[in-house]
Amino acid sequence: LGKILILKQLGMKRLMYLKNLWVVVVLPFFVSGCLKSKDDPFDYNVDIYVLQKNNEVDGVTEAKFATYIGIYNPIGDLASAEVNGPTSMSMVKTGINAYETKLADNEFSTTLPQGVYRITAANSQGQVASHNPSIRIDKPLGKLVVESFEYNAATNTVKAKWLPVENANAYYMMYSLQSSQSNYYRVNNRYIYWHDKDEQGVTRGEICLDGMELIAGTPLKIAVVAGREGEQGTLMLESEPLYIKIKVNEESSVPQ
What pTM does this model have? Predict the structure, then answer.
């Protein structure tokens, strides 16, 4: 690859990968703009995409889909949130200023989601704001095969190599700063966007964990993600995750 990305927390922006440059994508698919001041009218950021899960049934890959929605207000509070869409969905609170839809197995369907989702949220002062994003995915993704996925403690890096995925036009390496296998919220995910404007098939990635805000004693969740980005939404397919147990030195935020 020639370069290793050093992870750092960025503001709420979706930054693109340009040739020979790797950047962090904090909100991969957000609807509203960034909130900068508490004096601004009440609003919140919306993160929405379709998640695909592949299951092997009698040697045949069966794809199922569900729409994920996460909202948060980084400079204020969220007291309530609800969503109405083509399918029945409910939102749960994940923090003082965040809500998300919980993707239970029974919420996945063999039909690609499409339609308008009305999201309504209020703060503790009773102010209300709504967003109406639409989703329309034209093609499912194929099978995601990760050939290698490992953490090197000596260099503090994670390397992954994967095969091209049918219908994918973007690839990511996802990590979660606050993750455990029993207490995991998707709204905490961060993404590294891998794409070269001169290449169609990016099949490997390498990231360095130096500079990341870490939580001692909890596993860091990392996964390879294939995506299909379009004008009316993004479809995502995740690999099986890699969990790295983090120990933080008192004088450093680098995992030991």
Answer: 0.80
